[in-house]
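ok new one. same drill as before - structure tokens go in, u give me an amino acid for every spot. 311 of them this time. try not to just spam alanines like last time pls lmao
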């Protein structure tokens, strides 16, 4: 019980802030102590002029390094790229939707308010992640994807004009090369996001995914844009992205039956984020992405909270 209470305190944001301040304070004291020791050492060896100069330079360098290490999230803006889960959330036609059941809601007989719910959901519905094992045997399940793959600088490719003209549009190698001509090469370690503009229609199934029908026969009625397999192959062969995401139900377009883009990317352990929101608020470069899925052991995907931080 005591250990539990301690854990709670450790994860309280205010406590974490205090811990960071304590760490910075400790580092400063250490820096001061090192400076005094260095001064005495250099003074004995080379005189006090040299001692002051050496200590000054090294202290300045250490202080700069400490400044670089500090992460200040207050100097920026958070953008939520996640749709909320609710009963109207679009799912693949063969999957049952999101279900939230009330366990208890209201005043207890002890006089305080209490609410608790249980939820039921397929892995692949709403804003979610596809783990590589979804289409590649032996590749990472959702709990095995390293966090370092889920956090990184965003590259946002806006293909909404092409998609508004043609709902079955497939994002091409030419789209990627055109973006690079304007904004520079997609750097190693980028999280590549495509804005098709489809999230404007969320959660209206008919306009978002081509059909509101459900069941196996409705799969043939799906229409929405996606990534062409040639573009997926080009990314694997010529670039080194961490992950990829878009604002449609699937990275392969709605007409796909072979899901080649999934298979090409997942064979390389590159996960995908689907049904994203708010991409119109991101610049082509400059946002930092944090995409943390529910950690389902052995899962092929799962609900994802994805946010962008923009300075
Ligand atoms: Zn999926």
């Amino acid at each position: 019980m005591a250990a539990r209470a301690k854990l709670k305190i450790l994860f309280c944001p205010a406590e974490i802030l205090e811990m960071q301040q304590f760490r910075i304070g400790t580092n400063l004291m250490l820096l001061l102590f090192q400076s005094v020791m260095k001064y005495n050492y250099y003074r004995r060896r080379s005189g006090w002029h040299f001692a002051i100069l050496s200590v000054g330079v090294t202290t300045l360098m250490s202080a700069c390094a400490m400044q670089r290490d500090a992460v200040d999230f207050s100097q920026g803006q958070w953008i939520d790229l996640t749709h909320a889960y609710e009963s109207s959330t679009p799912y693949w036609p063969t999957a049952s939707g999101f279900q939230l059941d009330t366990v208890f809601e209201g005043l207890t007989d002890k006089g305080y308010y209490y609410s608790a719910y249980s939820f039921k959901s397929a892995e692949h519905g709403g804003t979610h992640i596809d783990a590589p094992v979804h289409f590649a045997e032996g590749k990472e399940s959702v709990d095995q994807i390293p966090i370092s793959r889920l956090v990184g600088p965003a590259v946002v490719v806006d293909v909404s004009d092409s998609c508004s003209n043609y709902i079955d549009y497939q994002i091409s190698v030419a789209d990627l090369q055109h973006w690079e001509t304007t904004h520079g090469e997609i750097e190693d370690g980028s999280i590549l996001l495509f804005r098709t503009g489809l999230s404007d229609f969320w959660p209206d199934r008919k306009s978002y995914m081509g059909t509101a029908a459900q069941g196996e026969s409705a799969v043939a009625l799906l229409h929405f844009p996606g990534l062409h397999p040639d573009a997926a192959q080009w990314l694997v062969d010529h670039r080194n992205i961490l992950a990829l995401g878009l604002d449609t139900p699937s990275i392969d377009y709605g007409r796909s039956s072979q899901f080649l883009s999934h298979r090409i990317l997942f064979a390389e352990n590159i996960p995908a984020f689907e049904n994203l929101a708010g991409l119109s608020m991101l610049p082509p470069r400059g946002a930092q992405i944090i995409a943390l899925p529910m950690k389902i052991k052995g899962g092929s995907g799962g609900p994802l909270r994805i946010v962008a931080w923009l300075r």
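The CA atoms of residues 10 and 16 lie 7 Å apart. and btw The mean pLDDT is 89.
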